[in-house]
Specification:
Helix content: 25-40%
Largest sheet: 7 strands, parallel
Distance between the termini: 17 Å
Length: 321
């Protein structure tokens, strides 16, 4: 006997969260629970504003159609919208016990403002010290100075930088100019520095700063290939699709000798804990990019280890089905 439950959540965000020039006051998404006998499987469907093509309403329409067919005993085709496909595939994987329980809860701490906030966390981080800076929010010169400050203060630190295609070639060169040349090898990669892939590749050739693909991977017709300028591929499953598609992208990147990084699309703690399991499963040894819970004011259903945020249950969500 199959049954389905769907809730909608709205988690309050910290006031300073800005995505592509829009302030994100709440994180809006759907929670799915599939049941078959005594077994349960949970999934999160959370289109990311400014990045996902679908809205929460679009996702709900497709999710309801899929769930109706599944509940009636059919084996419906994979959902087409990436956020729906990912959430449904996670719920099915939990239901069928094919998503490993082991999780990698390490996270590259995210610095989007005052770098002083990072120091204590990095000093306490065991093993490899990796942090991430969102660049392009301020002047390129300031971004270069912040990177210099962190790399000078913590000699064993490696930085991941993310520009979200915000720089013109001139701005990107200004950043590189103010980054101490001796620190460039400690930049693990810079995600999508310029507005086009061609400009980003040219930047990497000029500066010897390795780049990573993120948005480019999801463009129609893109084919991943081995390029000396590209060191990594950042994979955001909520924006990518079902678990099989995620596995295929990770495997292809690894085959080409590139680092695959599982990364958050600002999911709730439920989605983040599932991403931590996916990271341990598909990219063992690679620190995932999951340090986004700090942007929220509450957790949801499953706690993230050592988080002091309040944990919301189903009573704090709206039941839709």
């Amino acid at each position: 006997m199959r049954s389905v439950q769907i809730w909608r959540y709205q988690l309050p965000m910290d006031a300073g969260v800005v995505l592509r020039d829009r302030r994100l006051k709440v994180r809006d998404g759907l929670i799915l629970c599939l049941a078959e006998g005594e077994r349960r499987g949970w999934g999160e469907i959370a289109p990311l504003p400014g990045f996902s093509a679908e809205s929460v309403e679009d996702a709900l329409d497709e999710l309801l159609r899929w769930c109706e067919a599944w509940r009636d005993g059919d084996s419906p085709l994979a959902a087409q919208q990436p956020s729906v496909a990912f959430g449904v595939s996670c719920a099915l994987a939990e239901l069928q016990d094919t998503l490993p329980q082991a999780a990698d809860y390490r996270a590259a701490p995210l610095c989007s403002g005052d770098p002083d906030e990072l120091f204590a966390a990095l000093q306490a981080m065991p093993g490899e010290k990796v942090a991430k800076i969102k660049v392009g929010l301020y002047e390129a010169v300031r971004d270069g100075m912040v990177a210099n400050l962190l790399l000078e203060a913590i000699p064993d630190l490696t930085l991941r930088l993310d520009a979200n295609r915000s720089w013109t070639p001139l701005k990107a060169r200004q950043f590189a100019k103010y980054l101490n040349p001796q620190y460039r090898p400690r930049i693990a990669f810079l995600e999508e520095p310029c507005k086009t892939p061609e400009q980003s590749l040219e930047f990497a050739r000029e500066t010897a700063i390795a780049i990573a693909w993120d948005e480019t991977v999801r463009e129609p017709g893109f084919v991943l290939e081995s390029l000396p300028e590209v060191r990594a591929v950042v994979i955001k499953p909520t924006l990518t699709g079902n678990l099989q598609t995620v596995r295929e992208q990770v495997a292809e990147a690894q085959r080409l000798g590139m680092t695959a990084v599982i990364s958050s699309s600002i999911e709730s703690s439920l989605g983040l804990t599932q991403l931590a399991r996916i990271a341990a499963w598909l990219t063992p040894g690679v620190v995932p990019g999951l340090d986004t819970l700090s942007l929220m004011q509450a957790q949801l259903l499953r706690p993230w280890p050592d988080s002091s945020l309040p944990l919301w249950g189903t009573d704090e969500m709206d039941r839709l089905l």
